[in-house]
Amino acid sequence: MRTVEIICTNCGAETLLRRDAVYDGFVKTGESLSCSSCGHRFASEDDVPFKARNTGPRVFTEADRSARVDLFDTGEADWLCRHCAHYIVNPFTQFCALHRREVQATDTCDRFEKAVQRSGSDELL
Fold first, then answer.
1. Residue 27 belongs to what domain range?
2. What share of residues in the chain are helix, strand, coil (percent, to 5)?
């Protein structure tokens, strides 16, 4: 998200930057940047006096952060139904074509078969 807080050079107010689209017919050609208090227009993004963000005092350091929690053992998440060749998803249900029953994406079974990937794609077949 772009910064919107400014200190206007024209009126001196701490205010917000207004961004209005500029069109040529139905084609957007740029943006008009102005002060929301006084309407002063800025020529470009470089001319806008953005307000510096105050992050406040740093109380915690990275040493205070808790250890990363792994929910699955190494490779265990690869054996979930959602990675199986028999897993079918439609807008109404998730289905196992092998067992012919409704399943959840995080279910597992002993007859898991890894879905093959298409070459050059991240999608599974």
1. 5-47
2. 10, 30, 60
Q: Read off the tokens for 82.
A: 């959602």
Structural contact between residues 22 and 30, judged by C-beta atoms closer than 8 angstroms: yes
Strand order across the beta sheet in which 87-89 lies: 87-89, 94-96, 101-102
pLDDT, tens digit (0-9, with 9 covering 90-100), for 81-125: 888 999 998 888 999 999 899 999 888 888 888 888 655 545 554
- The closest alpha carbon to 87, from 65, 106, 68, 64, belongs to 106
State the total domains in the chain: 2
CATH number for the domain harbouring residue 112 = 2.20.70
Question: pLDDT digits over 5-26, tens only?
Answer: 999 999 989 999 999 999 999 9
